[in-house]
Write a structure and sequence with these properties.
Two copies of one chain form a homodimer. With about 400 residues, chain A is an alpha/beta fold. The first copy, chain A, has helices at about 45-55, 65-70, 75-90, 95-115, 120-125, 145-155, 175-190, 205-210, 215-220, 235-240, 255-265, 280-295, 305-315, 335-340, 365-370, and strands at about 5-10, 25-35, 35-40, 135-140, 160-165, 195, 220-225, 245-250, 270-275, 300, 325-330, 375-380, 385. In chain A, the strands form three sheets. In chain A, strands 10-9-8-7-6-5-4-11 form an eight-stranded parallel sheet. In chain A, strand 4, helix 6 (about 145-155) and strand 5 (about 160-165) form a beta-alpha-beta unit. At the A-B interface, helix 1, helix 3, helix 11 and strand 12 of A face helix 1, helix 3, helix 11 and strand 12 of B.
Chain lengths: ~400, ~400
């Protein structure tokens, strides 16, 4: 097969707010080869990721992603690895390229899975996809009452685990944070798994993060996620040494395998969280999962958008039976829900399992996407480089 | 002062080839505040960096860079630090933001320097700018004869140091590489400082890089630069342990302070090379220079484009007397030369010193830029987001 076309669809809610809610827009990718199509999704900033596909070349190590992908051969997983390696060298100086290629890479796996009538996790070498325990991933409320209500809502829907993140946490007093943590625990109930996401708010200030450890332990939080900038490994490691029962999680910012490995090796995190829409797709995420498993670190997906992204992000560790927990967008905006025709729903045990279907097992909804399609036009050097088309 | 306007000018040679020559295009930034202007330059992929300035917001941690910068107060260096910290949090999920902000940050320093009638290096806390020994930075030739001629040309122009990089190196046989290294030494002469840049060609294959160490030592190469992907710290450290007289250099891929620090801490490089057009501008580069000096690592600028970028990249270590060597674009394309009215030229000793002039001390040439100006238009959501204007 030849990769004949790569098309991008920028979807957005009519209004985008400055809440830390990553489900407000999406960049969906369709790859066509050999009469088949595959679908993927890039995480964050659709217009910029489109630009990284269509931009004119700056030099031999700063090509647009299109120059590496279009017209190339796709017969099996080795071709995906070959293209990924070429992106690393030929798009070396184009920072955004990793995010752009991530969605394409997912779509290539989806397409291969459809060609071979096989779920992607089996193409990755797993025999079986084990059930995962989804945590309802949501933002802290503006008030403790809202936080309590959010956690209660998740519990009422059968979730046994909840993550609260961003919002006011770390921005006010210690007492404010403690009130939110207590409220979260009350809403979730005594038995539930409580996870907390600081959204990098402590930058690299270990003392400020450590001041929250006692109240996190008091609320029975399993992990504190992303207390610091993604690359501040020394701070992660220093906090981990003081963490006691509260473990440190992070990794979503990784835009290549090495960044995730280093957060394990030097940041000493206990949970490594990977977004397949950022790290370069499914194969580098699988490499992280293998590395984590060998080093006693638990792999977790990072997903705050659609169920297409959710499926892609679960594939890399589908076969790791002991890596049980998974992020599950709890209150996504309608664009993230409507863009797929099927969804990955919790079963009676409150667990989720990947679709037993070819590729990513997710059918996109072209009608659902059309409602949110954003018009974009990019031209340079006298050429039209991109114009939105309907899926 | 309020930051009233940030304007981008995408310049390009009429033809851009796939040679590893980063001087074929440029993205120049002009910032206006308080009746003054400052100028900076982003490294690589102009269209994508423009898109990261104008793109619609995706969510509260994925804003366009414009949302952080426009209308903000600029009175002194603390304001630059404040804006940089906001970019890290508010543009967290927009990967390209670091490259976009880099050029803006340079322009903010240039503007402050003009306001206070002070060179930027003095605003950074240095009393004096020491002379640096420039190395003529160029690509390997396609043949050893071309490599020899390139090094000879640099020597004839008074350069006492030369770097050859990219091109065929590491792509053919060991004998081919040895021929190029010997030719480089012959062209440069016995006394000259020879530096070699592998352009990440060995990915993370330590053995392949190590196989070149004996011939590098034979040719008297001082360093081997970027043998591996920017983040493959284990490979850097492993090669360094075998390096003997050949030291390892790297760091140009760093898009924040932490990445550079980690290449020092874990990659164990002897030379840390920072591009101010990528790392977020001049202040994070200064922080790297301070860190390097404290840890016995030599700081070197990475510059392959214009003399505006060259001045910006020399400021962060201008006052470090013992960090002597500097990268100097030897055969830049005409766009990189013509865009500034003045240049930083070697003196009779073959050394270069920063201009004793306010800001970056470089005057852009609006006429020089106009010749290379690329027409770009970006629109989304029914709005024109960017259209090229004349400087």
């Amino acid at each position: 097969m030849k990769i004949e076309a790569v098309d991008f669809f920028y979807l957005s809610m009519p209004e985008v707010t400055d809440a830390g809610d990553g489900s407000q827009d999406a960049l969906v990718v369709r790859v066509a080869a050999g009469g088949l199509v595959g679908w993927g999704e890039c995480e964050a900033s659709p217009l910029v990721s489109i630009a990284a596909f269509v931009t004119p070349m700056s030099h031999g190590a700063c090509k647009p992603v299109s120059a590496v992908v279009l017209g190339e051969t796709l017969e099996g997983p080795a071709d995906i690895a070959r293209l990924a390696a070429r992106v690393e060298l030929e798009c070396m100086d184009l920072l955004q390229a990793a995010h752009t290629f991530s969605g394409i890479e997912m779509a290539l796996w989806d397409l291969l899975g459809r060609r071979f009538d096989t779920p992607v996790y089996q193409l990755l070498g797993y025999k079986q996809a084990y059930p995962k325990l989804p945590y309802a991933s949501q933002l802290f409320g503006d008030t403790p009452e809202e936080t309590r209500a959010g956690c209660r809502a998740a519990r009422d829907k059968g979730f046994r685990a909840v993550k609260c993140g961003w919002g006011p946490f770390g921005r006010g007093s210690l007492a404010d944070d403690r009130d939110h943590l207590q409220a979260a625990r009350e809403g979730l109930g005594k038995e539930g798994t409580l996870l907390i996401d600081a959204g990098q708010i402590f930058i690299e200030n270990v003392d400020a993060a450590a001041a929250r450890l006692p109240m996190l332990a008091e609320a029975g939080a399993v992990w504190l996620e992303e207390p610091f900038l993604g690359g501040a490994y020394e701070a992660y490691a220093a906090l981990g040494r003081q963490g006691g029962s509260v473990r440190i999680a992070g990794g979503e910012a990784s835009h290549n395998f090495h960044m995730a490995r280093q957060l394990i090796d030097y940041g000493k995190v206990s949970y490594i969280q990977i977004d397949c829409g950022r790290i370069g797709g499914i194969a580098p995420a699988k490499r992280v999962a293998d590395y984590a498993a060998r080093h006693g670190v638990t792999y977790v997906n990072h997903t705050f958008t659609s169920h297409l992204a959710l499926s892609a992000s679960l594939q890399p560790y589908a076969g790791l039976k002991d890596h049980v927990i998974c992020e599950y967008p709890f209150t996504p905006k309608s664009v993230a829900w409507d863009m797929t025709a099927n969804h990955i729903l919790p079963d009676a045990n409150g667990e989720v399992t990947l679709p037993q279907a070819p590729g990513l097992g997710i059918t996109v909804s072209e009608a659902g996407m059309a409602k949110y399609l954003v018009d974009v036009e990019i031209s340079a050097k006298g050429k039209l480089l991109y114009r939105t088309s309907r899926p």
